[in-house]
């Protein structure tokens, strides 16, 4: 180990306050330790996960008293019954009736067995005794057959009921969850609750009916046996308790050990699954290989696999021990019971046949008791998860979108935003404070500004995804609060920077924009993909429109980020909405594709009935918008056309925010060393000139510029037009320091960048 290493480890042990030779003085963080565990070590691997949502009720049944479990059981059973009844009343009634009848058959069977035994143990010749026993034996057989049929009925009823309950609850959960207001979904605690409800609550809800049936089966069986014993001789009842209580105690201990172990086990399973997933997943595959992380991950996987192995073995041993203990204690108790039984029959307290019946009842009760104990623990613990699921559903009901029963009329002429404020739930400050704007149909509007300044929030308010905390948004004369939020959402198409890659066919990936994955308007779909440039992408797929866009499917294809973006733009266009919001959709597209999208969306056949809102950090793409709003800290600080904003100065004579940002971006495309201020001004002025469709300005040092290259696409854009300074023969592109690209107007790659690339930079 080097001296430096020694120093490092010393620092680590002595605390970060003691600066060492390589201590990162003044940094936000102390130096990290030289060795760290990838995951917790030691006995309690689950400790750090105790607060994880999926650990909440894990092993709870083992920590709760049996009396409490028994106390809650009737309410749990009532709730499951209610659920089943709502899903299918007939099947539920059938299951209940058949189950009770089956238990009665079992009890009558026991009584008939006692009668048969009485006949068989009576005085007289064997043939005579058999003859007398025959009717009872026949009855036993008949009752057993009836019980078999009734159990079949229970199984059929349960088979009909369980999938119905599952479907009903799952659909209710999904229907409510997917409509919940967006601001609730943003909340991490709500998201945890939703996951918990999905992977625990729903899972246990699905098992609730079969569990209730087996609990009822076992409990009724026990009750039947106890009833028969009470009929045979009242003293047999305490004898039954004497025999089953030790057995029951052993069963409770075993069930609790299982529950606790399961809790540890599932923590380990979650951990190990994480490593399995990292080793197998497609997304992590390139990085796992590139960083040669296989060994480290495999070692970690093995560490957990060994612990699971130990946990399995430990549980097995523990179960065997508890079973042995239970058998020993239970055996002693049963031995004592049988001895008491023998004494009672020998001394004439009880007829021999009743003793035989008691023997049968006690034997069958012992097995049934174990089932009852396990089932009641399971039902108790699962009910806690189901409680959470029901609370979540209740919350979802309260968080459904704003509904008034009134729908927004189709289309809009003007959207008027007046003094809008918006604060995210639990946020310390307003995301928007006092925003006002007017958006007219047929116009293109840009929202620009620094990260976190409120652009996307404004777009989401316009889309009806959030309701203003204060202020108003009117679609023509209708205030958004007066109509169903979903009727606003249906009129706004949003294309986001990270669009969803729907694992559906290429066509469905387009039509889902209009809320369908099974129907299409072929003409509209073709027009949308052509405008967005996705036509070439889809044409190159093996099954074109029907190609599944996911590698998870057979013959599925994966698209590159840029191609997904084109499909997303097509989706937005296909929606044919009154408002189209493009929130940096072209960030992952190549320069040509980006140019083509802006050409189509901003300058193509601009629909007179659509408001197009463009959110972009690349200011070259917004220059031709009819209106640009500059956001800062949730307010609009400047607004106007590109030209207005480039002329704007603040009260203290400084360039406005837009102009400052624009100039900064422009400077990144200048040839180093940084261009002279005059050249920069020339670039900007030339662009302005182009936008104003008038000759370019005079530039110092004879700069002449190709306005089209920097101004971005324009509707009547003469792409070969050159703006010349009157006295400068040389073009900016060839002028040192101008930083402008030479080449034809077809150089779309250069057009799409904030400023054209330098010659030779590609
Ligand atoms: N879901 C959310 N929950 C809480 N706060 C949020 C949420 N989304 C955004 N914010 C906050 O609201 C403010 C405005 O965010 P917004 O996303 O609208 O900014 P933006 O201008 O679109 O930023 P960017 O350019 O980075 O996309 C920021 O302070 C942000 O942290």
Automatic annotation (TrEMBL):
GO terms for cellular component: plasma membrane. Residues 1-29, 694-762 are annotated as: Disordered. InterPro entries: AAA+_ATPase, ABC1_TM_dom, ABC1_TM_sf, ABC_transporter-like_ATP-bd, ABC_transporter-like_CS, P-loop_NTPase, Type_1_exporter. Residues 93-381 form the ABC transmembrane type-1 domain. It is a multi-pass membrane protein. Keywords: ATP-binding, Membrane, Nucleotide-binding, Transmembrane, Transmembrane helix. Its main location: membrane. GO terms for molecular function: ABC-type transporter activity; ATP binding; ATP hydrolysis activity; ATPase-coupled lipid transmembrane transporter activity. This is ABC transporter ATP-binding protein. The lineage of its organism: Bacteria, Bacillati, Actinomycetota, Actinomycetes, Kitasatosporales.
């Amino acid at each position: 180990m080097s001296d430096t290493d020694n120093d490092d480890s010393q620092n680590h042990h002595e605390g970060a306050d003691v600066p060492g030779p390589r201590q990162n003085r003044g940094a936000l963080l102390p130096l990290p330790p030289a060795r760290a565990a990838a995951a917790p070590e030691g006995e309690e691997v689950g400790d750090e996960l105790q607060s994880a949502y999926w650990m909440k009720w894990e092993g709870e049944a083992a920590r709760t008293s049996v009396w409490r479990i028994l106390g809650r059981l009737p309410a749990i059973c009532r709730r499951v019954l209610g659920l089943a009844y709502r899903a299918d009343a007939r099947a539920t009634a059938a299951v209940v009736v058949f189950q009770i009848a089956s238990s009665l058959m079992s009890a009558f069977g026991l009584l008939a067995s006692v009668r048969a035994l009485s006949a068989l143990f009576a005085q007289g010749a064997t043939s005579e005794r058999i003859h007398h026993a025959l009717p009872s034996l026949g009855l036993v057989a008949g009752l057993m057959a009836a019980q078999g049929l009734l159990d079949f009925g229970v199984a059929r009823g349960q088979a009909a009921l369980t999938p119905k309950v599952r479907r009903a609850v799952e659909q209710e959960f999904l229907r409510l969850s997917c409509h919940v207001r967006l601001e609730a979904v943003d909340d991490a605690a709500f998201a945890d609750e939703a996951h918990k409800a999905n992977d625990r609550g729903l899972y246990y809800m699905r098992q609730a009916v079969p569990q209730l049936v087996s609990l009822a089966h076992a409990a009724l069986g026990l009750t039947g046996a106890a009833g028969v014993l009470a009929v045979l001789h009242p003293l047999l009842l305490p004898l039954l308790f004497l025999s089953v209580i030790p057995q029951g105690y052993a069963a409770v201990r075993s069930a609790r050990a299982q529950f606790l172990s399961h809790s540890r086990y599932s923590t380990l399973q979650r951990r190990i699954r994480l490593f399995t997933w990292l080793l197998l997943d497609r997304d992590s595959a390139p990085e796992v290989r590139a960083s040669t992380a296989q060994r480290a991950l495999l070692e970690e996987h093995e560490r957990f696999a060994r612990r699971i192995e130990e946990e399995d073995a430990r549980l097995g041993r523990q179960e065997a021990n508890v079973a042995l203990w239970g058998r020993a204690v239970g055996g002693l108790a049963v031995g004592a019971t049988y001895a008491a039984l023998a004494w009672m029959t020998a001394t004439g307290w009880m007829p021999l046949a009743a003793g035989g019946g008691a023997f049968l009842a006690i034997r069958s009760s012992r097995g049934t008791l174990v089932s009852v104990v396990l089932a009641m623990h399971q039902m108790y613990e699962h009910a806690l998860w189901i409680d959470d699921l029901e609370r979540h559903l209740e919350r979802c009901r309260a968080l459904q979108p704003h509904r008034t029963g009134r729908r927004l009329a189709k289309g809009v002429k003007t959207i008027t935003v007046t003094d809008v404020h918006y604060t995210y739930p639990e946020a310390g400050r307003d995301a928007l404070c006092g925003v006002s704007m007017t958006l007219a149909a047929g116009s293109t509007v840009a929202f620009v500004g620094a990260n976190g300044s409120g652009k996307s929030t404004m777009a989401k308010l316009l889309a009806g995804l959030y309701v203003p905390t204060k202020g108003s948004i009117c679609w023509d004369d209708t205030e958004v609060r007066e109509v169903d939020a979903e009727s606003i959402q249906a009129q706004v198409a949003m294309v986001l920077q990270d669009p969803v890659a729907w694992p559906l066919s290429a066509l469905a990936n387009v039509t889902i924009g209009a809320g369908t994955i099974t129907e299409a308007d072929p003409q509209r779909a073709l027009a949308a993909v052509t405008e967005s440039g996705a036509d070439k992408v889809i044409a190159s797929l093996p099954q074109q429109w029907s190609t599944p866009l996911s590698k998870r499917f057979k013959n599925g294809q994966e698209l590159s980020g840029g191609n997904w973006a084109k499909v997303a733009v097509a989706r937005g266009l296909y929606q044919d909405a009154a408002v189209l919001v493009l929130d940096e959709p072209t960030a992952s597209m190549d320069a040509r594709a980006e140019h083509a999208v802006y050409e189509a969306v901003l300058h193509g056949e601009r629909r007179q009935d659509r408001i197009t809102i463009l959110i972009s950090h690349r200011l070259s793409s917004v220059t031709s918008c009819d209106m640009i709003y500059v956001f800062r800290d949730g307010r609009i600080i400047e607004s106007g056309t590109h030209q207005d904003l480039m002329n704007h100065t603040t009260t203290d004579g400084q360039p406005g925010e837009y102009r400052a940002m624009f100039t900064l971006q422009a400077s990144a495309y200048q040839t180093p060393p940084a261009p002279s201020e005059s050249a920069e001004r020339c670039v900007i002025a030339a662009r302005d000139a182009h936008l104003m469709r008038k000759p370019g300005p005079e530039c110092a040092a004879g700069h002449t510029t190709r306005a089209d290259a920097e101004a971005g696409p324009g509707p009547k854009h003469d792409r070969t037009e050159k703006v010349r300074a009157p006295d400068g023969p040389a073009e900016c592109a060839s002028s040192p320091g101008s930083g402008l690209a030479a080449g034809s107007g077809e150089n779309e790659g250069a057009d799409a960048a904030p400023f054209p690339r330098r010659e030779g930079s590609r």
